[in-house]
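Example record

The entry below shows one chain as it appears in the dataset: sequence first, then structure tokens.
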Amino acid sequence: MTLKISPVAPHQAASCLPLFQAYLAFYHVEQAAADCLAFLEARLSQHEARLWLAEDAGVAVGFALMYPGFNSLTLKPSWLLHDLYVAPEYRGSGVSKQLLQVCQAHVLKLGGGDIMLQTAHDNSKAQRLYERNGFVLDTDFRVYYWDGKGN
């Protein structure tokens, strides 16, 4: 495998679309391709996200999508690694680890800060990946979610 990981510019967002939709399907979410593409292009063109695509011999095999923010406690940038996805046939080949390392290198290149992420309680493979790459389980804070619908 010859893996190449590159940042994705707004005009290149379509190259990630099949993987992005596979990621959504993994979580049992359906969105129209046109809506997904418009979302990715908007986030990238407005500098609201950073997206990297992993390719093996020109075939898209995985991506990582981070959103920038800030941490008032550390007074530093804080990034949300919202999406990390690798095509099933490439899982276990090191693609996830390399994508994760690209995200970490990006944060360090910009002067530091932290990366936050979430994963399902039963996703032990992802948990092991994160822990092996310096992430620690947050036992200090409980995460809550509001869906914006009043539920």
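Notes for this example: The longest helix spans residues 95-109. The first strand starts at residue 3 and ends at 7.
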